[in-house]
Amino acid sequence: MITFDKLLVGGAWTAPATSDVLEVRSPHDQSLVGVVPEASFADVDRAVAAAREAFDHGPWPRLAPEERRRVVARFNELHAARAGELAALITSENGSPIWFTGWLQRSLKDFNDDFLDVAAGFDWESELPGRDGHRTVVRRAPVGVVAAVIPWNAPHQSALVKLVPALLAGCTVILKPSPETAVDGLRLAELLAEAGFPEGVISVLPADREVSEYLIAHTGVDKIAFTGSTAAGRRIAAIAGERFKRVSLELGGKSASIVLPDADVARAAAALKSLSLGNNGEACVAHTRILAPRSRYDEVVEAIAAMMRGVTVGDPMDPDTWIGPMVKQAQQQRVQSCIEAGIAEGARLVLGGPGAPDIPGLEKGFYVRPTLFADVANTMRIAQEEIFGPVLAVIPYDTEDEAVAIANDSDYGLDGGVWTADPEHGLEVARRIRTGTFGVNGASRDMRAPFGGFKASGLGREFGPAGLSAYMEYQSIAL
Fold first, then answer.
1. Which of 23, 109, 142, 191 could bridge 170 with an S-S bond, Cβ 3.0-4.6 Å?
2. 170-229 pLDDT, tens per residue?
3. Mind listing the pLDDT tens digit for each residue in 61-91?
4. 250 is catalytic
5. Candidate list 284, 338, 386, 462, residue with the active-site label
6. Cβ neighbour number for residue 428 with a 10 Å cutoff
7. b/e sequence 28-47, b meaning 16+ C-beta within 10 Å
8. Residues paired with residue 12 on neighbouring β-strands, in sequence order
């Protein structure tokens, strides 16, 4: 068991204002993973005051970009050296399979290196050609104090895609980890403290929703960077709008994978193992609506069913496990209710269904049965709601135009894909879909490209130059 008794406030380990704690338990067997302090309103006040002082009067925003870049690069090396240890800790907290957390933690060094490369070549200040004897300097100024609020499903990626560009831009940051992954949040704080950021620049405050809202609404915070549910995003956007705070929101998804009549169905089904069921299906980018042509509908359904029958459900620490437990009992119950709704609405249950898997050793965990529905109408709850679990719906279509219309008939627009023998035609289809990211035949997204959603999937973009620009204001100076 891991125990912390202090919070990182302004870069210093500080006794919390209250004795309240967060107990983090394994969703696999309910064993105690760790105990950390639960941040309070008073802790937020201290962290914001430290961040405000560091931004308004401290050295960090006034350093040359290359000096900030060196400190962030040092942190990146420290973090990469602990990738395996951090992966195991996150798996113990949230139930993500160790294959997923191991891959993701190892990948984060490259993600951070991409940001460092962007910062090295960034146009921090430029000059417009003069008119009438005057000239104008255009500079990118850091936005200020940032509140970064992250979820539990990929905690370090969600944290670093905010922390790294914000710090490179010259902002000061208060990171608010989720209660479900509070222990790894303070492990991350240890590495941030070791990296050598100036006083006041970084705080890490694990807490639940009430304290999150207090932080978000705090008058000393200039920008909110949030990843989480669309419902929470709407509340944050309302708070930000009232106070004219800058905000970026990476929210939910209900992504469609369109299988065209000429597609390699076996290839598509194999790729959907990761695209649809990766990280236990607890992923905003998961392809959970599979659109199949009626001419090959049964073939597509059977191919996906065969793939899912081969998926191993079990202890997330086992390298052979593909799907572990849901992060908490409330999430397990939500997934179960969605499965029951699919049956009640008349979808055909192909495999899985209500109840926990009958597998010895999993009795204490928050497990669900990977579930596949066929003959799904896009109006059904299982086709419209983000379930955040291993539940897939196969929806039939007659024409390509109908497939595009179904794909776009969603409140969300985060991700998606198309499967076809003609990649150029796939590109044509992609251009018709209202979604922030899209893949042709499972192609991997370049992490230097902008990431974010249309519609209720969020506001703003992360990664690459767009992700760095999200933490800046333009200032035009006429001379």
1. 142
2. 999 999 999 999 999 999 999 999 999 999 999 999 999 999 999 999 999 999 999 999
3. 999 999 999 999 999 999 999 999 999 999 9
4. yes
5. 284
6. 14
7. beeeebbbbbbbbeebbebb
8. 9
Paired tokens of 428: 């044509």
Left if phi > 0, otherwise alpha if psi is -120 to 50, otherwise beta: which for 355? left
Q: What is the pLDDT of residue 242?
A: 92
Q: Which of 193, 171, 192, 210 is nearest to 38 (CA)?
A: 210
284 an active-site residue? yes
Question: Which pair of structure tokens corresponds to residue 327?
Answer: 């992060």
Examine the pLDDT at 391 and tell me if it is beyond 80. yes
* 134 confidence band (pLDDT: 50, 70, 90): confident
Whether this prediction's pTM lies above 0.70 is answered by yes
Question: Residue 295's pLDDT band (boundaries 50, 70, 90)?
Answer: very high
3-state SS of the chain is CEECCCEEECCEEECCCCCCEEEEECCCCCCEEEEEECCCHHHHHHHHHHHHHHHHHCCHHHCCHHHHHHHHHHHHHHHHCCHHHHHHHHHHHHCCCHHHHHHHHHHHHHHHHHHHHHHHCCCCEEEEEEECCEEEEEEEEECCEEEEECCCCCHHHHHHHHHHHHHHHCCEEEEECCHHHHHHHHHHHHHHHHHCCCCCCEEECCCCHHHHHHHHHCCCCCEEEEECCHHHHHHHHHHHHHHCCEEEEECCCCEEEEECCCCCHHHHHHHHHHHHHHHHHCCCCCEEEEEEEHHHHHHHHHHHHHHHHCCCECCCCCCCCCECCCCCHHHHHHHHHHHHHHHHCCCEEEEEECCCCCCCCCCCCCCCEEEEEECCCCCCHHHHCCCCCCEEEEEEECCHHHHHHHHHCCCEECCEEEECCCHHHHHHHHCCCCCCCCEECCCCCCCCCCECCEECCEECCECHHHHHHCCEEEEEEEC
Count of CB atoms situated within 10 Å of the CB of 465: 18
Selecting among 93, 180, 250, 282, the annotated active-site residue is: 250
Token pair 């595009």 is found at 404
Q: By CB neighbour count within 10 A (0-12 exposed, 13-18 middle, 19+ buried), where does 124 fall?
A: middle
Q: Is the pLDDT of residue 130 over 80?
A: no
Q: How far is CA 435 from CA 232, 255, 377, 409, 415, in A?
A: 20, 8, 20, 11, 6
Q: Is 412 exposed, middle or buried (0-12, 13-18, 19+ CB in 10 A)?
A: buried
- Total count of residues recorded for the chain: 479
The domains located in the chain, with CATH, are: 2-251+457-478 (3.40.605.10), 255-446 (3.40.309.10)
Per-residue pLDDT reduced to its tens digit, 262-272: 999 999 999 99
